[in-house]
Design a protein that fits this description.
CATH topology: Rossmann fold
Helix content: 40-55%
Number of strands: 6
Strand order of the largest sheet: 3-2-1-4-6-5
Order of helices and strands: EHHEHHEHHEEE
Largest sheet: 6 strands, mixed
CATH superfamily: 5'-nuclease
CATH architecture: 3-Layer(aba) Sandwich
Strand content: 15-25%
Number of domains: 1
Structural class: alpha/beta
């Protein structure tokens, strides 16, 4: 069984923005080398919103989203995902939006969640480990 890695929105944004930054290089390397990439419809929507705020053209954003869809498994947010997110929020104290990301990663049977926004090394539900790929790159 190959390792599934959920990629949070911030990793995708770094991969497609400010190509001279060290974070961009780290994000691109992850996307190019991790075995199975997983995202969610939430990630695609957040990505679109963030990139618009960064004044990226709609056409380029759409091209990047199509690329994300092509190279990653995209988990759809279902009612069950929302219910699981509520449970995770209550159990762990995450924000609702982080809980929804985590619920999506768990639903997709991911072993790792790559994110800059959560506690690196934390293991959730004894099966999902949070990894901050930028922690050791500073």
């Amino acid at each position: 069984m190959s390792v599934k890695c959920f990629i949070d929105t911030n990793i995708w944004v770094y991969a497609h923005f400010n190509h001279t930054s060290e974070k961009c290089a780290v994000a691109l390397q992850l996307i190019e080398t991790l075995p199975i990439l997983v995202g969610s419809t939430q990630v695609l929507n957040e990505y679109y919103s963030v990139m618009l705020k960064k004044k990226i053209t709609d056409l380029l954003i759409q091209e990047n989203i199509e690329l994300m869809i092509d190279i990653a498994m995209i988990n759809t947010i279902h009612i069950s995902t929302i219910r699981d997110a509520h449970k995770l929020k209550l159990k762990y104290g995450f924000s609702y939006w982080d809980s929804l990301i985590i619920a999506s990663a768990l639903e997709a049977n991911c072993q790792f969640l790559y994110s800059e926004d959560m506690q690196a090394g934390q293991v959730i539900e004894n099966r999902l480990t949070v990894v901050n790929p930028f922690r050791d790159s500073k």
